[in-house]
């Protein structure tokens, strides 16, 4: 028990001290203040060793990813990150591991102006849960429900990288050193698209982050908005590293079916396209139009240069960390 | 993965639908609204099977306790519960276990007018994390810092029961059937003192919930407030069941050193005592004055009928669930 009280000391030295945190870590609860005119976006994500990250992941990677997946959810709502609560269950209070984990977590918190306001450290299997809180102006949250037929469908960054990164982590793909480093980094150190998400308020009609795979996550928008989608796969943004390793066809399959990319997938009414382009240029986030929403509720049409495209359902898309767990 | 999507369906049928939840479960984040004039109290607690509850605990007990420990933290700040996020990691998606766990959790949520607004269900060892959110009027949160020498020290309900309940759960104490049932219930189904906590605003000068044991938790108030305490142990509220099982001396030791009672321990300025008594009578919560804060920072004096009392440091106080874990 004492050991786990000591653990807490690793999380007390924070550079980010927000004015809206009235009472920080150290009492039964934190006390916070939501600014007038703002609503509160709240999300919880749990990462289990061997399920959501490889068991040999570095403490830096685990800390980075734990925070990134929660901030990515805030980004997908257009919310600005504010506070997090951390639950850390770990078998032993290894001080080296804790120093590395907490240094990365708090550095990332500082980068995003996020304050750690509470949590719990307990003895148990390695499981990390973060509940993240963010602000979004009233009625400006971007849900999955606002997409309309005709809206253009966009994605930030590149897709498919984390899927091949996982295959590399599981020794199921041998990659050239430079590519392996890039792809594994995309798996272990995803970038939550916080700035992009904030700038999509009043521009995007619907938004989600790609955690389970582009097609699966697109279906959530289709169900939420009661629409269908046409994807023009020749426009899919694929990294040079991914293409160099597996070629175009497998790259497309990975981009469509593998998860963990944490890019934003969003729809934009045509009259907002100029605003979108200006806004994304301003925040320096690459976005690509990959298709359009349609009136065929729940249906996804895949096209390659206007011809129907058959998903191969082979290649790497069946890799999943879950398979490596008993 | 699909299995764990199905799990979510166990948590969707909620009777509690709050107006301050703008967007409930089902998107990347929940969107909520904190009422004007209110601050937000936030707390996270994690319970690991075999560490925080016996491995043979019923799903009802696990659900009840998971929520109770978080609501108890809100109560200790004087906050009114509003929303929770649930992270549930479990080895298999056993539908019977889930039905029982979710039924208890949601029934308790309804009882306290709490809405489940999000969370994560993942495959992994049995670990439950709840982040609870509550409201407290601006500047009325009860912290650990406001105690002053001369303030009277109170506790709600009885103390020590859960400690003996744990000894029973671990087969280290054989109790008469009726006593065993009561004591085990105090361990497995603690009552968070929500109503009492809310009514202590502007009456109590400092407050904490007893989770780690009366002396340990009292030290947090002493450190926070820069005071000491004198305990008059003849006033300690001990249940008839506890006294019947272990006698007065061991009962006192348990009351002072064993945790998990989730009663509130709080200090009250003498001029507020009348208000306190009226208020606690109104909300029907028994409270007992067990001593007084002193000017001797960090020092706890134990007295029995004005004579110095020597804590036995034997008996049941060394029992801890942690010992039963590898």
Automatic annotation (TrEMBL), chains A, B:
InterPro entries: PurM-like_C_dom, PurM-like_C_sf, PurM-like_N, PurM-like_N_sf, ThiL-like. ATP binds at residues 119-120, 144, 211. It catalyses: thiamine phosphate + ATP = thiamine diphosphate + ADP. Mg(2+) 2 binds at residues 45, 73. Mg(2+) 4 binds at residues 28, 43, 73. Mg(2+) 1 binds at residues 44-45, 120. Mg(2+) 5 binds at residue 212. Mg(2+) 3 binds at residues 28, 73, 209. The keyword S-adenosyl-L-methionine does not apply. GO terms for molecular function: thiamine-phosphate kinase activity. Residues 148-297 form the PurM-like C-terminal domain. Keywords: ATP-binding, Kinase, Magnesium, Metal-binding, Nucleotide-binding, Thiamine biosynthesis, Transferase. Gene3D superfamilies: PurM-like C-terminal domain, PurM-like, N-terminal domain. Substrate binds at residues 52, 260, 316. Pathway: Cofactor biosynthesis; thiamine diphosphate biosynthesis; thiamine diphosphate from thiamine phosphate: step 1/1. Belongs to the thiamine-monophosphate kinase family. Catalyzes the ATP-dependent phosphorylation of thiamine-monophosphate (TMP) to form thiamine-pyrophosphate (TPP), the active form of vitamin B1. Reaction mechanism of ThiL seems to utilize a direct, inline transfer of the gamma-phosphate of ATP to TMP rather than a phosphorylated enzyme intermediate. This is Thiamine-monophosphate kinase. It comes from Pseudobowmanella zhangzhouensis. The lineage of its organism: Bacteria, Pseudomonadati, Pseudomonadota, Gammaproteobacteria, Alteromonadales.
